[in-house]
Amino acid sequence: MQLLQNEVPLKWNQPEQEQDFTELQKALSDNALLVLPDPKSPYYLFIDASNQAIGATINQKDENGVLQLIACRSRKLSKSERNYPRERALIIILPHQPLDLLSFRS
């Protein structure tokens, strides 16, 4: 997939790039990637922030010990939030997102 390679000039008029983009869109939006939570198993919360956005995922391990995605959410930072140090941006997620993640399944 050329869209995943570094140092490759983007020429959007190539049909294979349109096909790659369509495949990526489908893979990222496919609800089959999400699994139902098991209330008896521990949850794993992963959070990340950049200068532009924040994101969080809730995961659980399956019977083989492989982490499976239960829910995820991300959003752009507001103009004022972009001035925060990265560590503070991560804290923004905590009151707003993880508790809502389990009900967010779009």
Give the SSE map.
Layout: H1 15-29, E1 44-49, E2 53-61, E3 67-76, H2 86-96, H3 98-101
Antiparallel strand pairs: 1-2, 2-3
Describe this structure in words.
By secondary structure, the chain is of the alpha+beta class. The chain folds into 2 domains: 1-33; 34-106, Ubiquitin-like (UB roll) (Roll). Helices cover 28% and strands 24% of the residues. It has 3 helices and 3 strands. The chain is flat and about 50 Å long. The two termini are 26 Å apart. The relative contact order is 0.15. Residues 101-106 have low confidence and may be disordered.
Descriptive keywords:
single chain, Ubiquitin-like (UB roll), alpha+beta, three-stranded antiparallel β-sheet, 24% strand, 106 residues
Give a brief rundown of this model:
The protein has 106 residues and is α+β, with helices and mostly antiparallel strands. The chain contains three helices and three strands, in the order αβββαα.
- The total of helices stands at 3
CATH architecture of the largest domain: Roll
Our count of domains comes out at: 2
Helix content percent band: 25-40%
- Spans of at least 5 consecutive residues whose pLDDT stays below 50 are 101-106
| CATH domain fold name of the largest domain | Ubiquitin-like (UB roll)
